[in-house]
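Good morning C.,

I know you're traveling, so I'll keep this short. The sequence:
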Amino acid sequence: MPENAFRTDGTIDSFENRHEGRDYTIEFAAPEFTSVCPMTGLPDFGVIRIRYVPADRCIELRSFKYYLFTFRNRGIFYEDLANTLLDDIVAAVHPRELDVIAEMNARGGITATVTASYRAAGRDVARREP
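The tokens, ready to paste straight into the viewer:
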């Protein structure tokens, strides 16, 4: 793929994992995540943390940033957010393991953290602490 040919249209793009035969963990955080409360229309702020063990593809981060931007004006509950992110990442890169942690900032004096996890068939499904 030519340099800078990765997508910026809100689609999660990927690239070849050159170390497919080895389990290793990729972690990244988006500390400036924003979406909208579907009940009030007010903005929600939080940190999205992604932790995954890639299979044959890795998430291309610039495209992922643009994907996250698609939530800026989208009304979505925290629980739906974490699970939507999980489903979209699994569909895009088919990881061996994936944890999506949505750590949402205080609203009305209450914070919320929602974790959604995925393990490919044959992987240990025991819950691990994020």
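Safe travels,
E.
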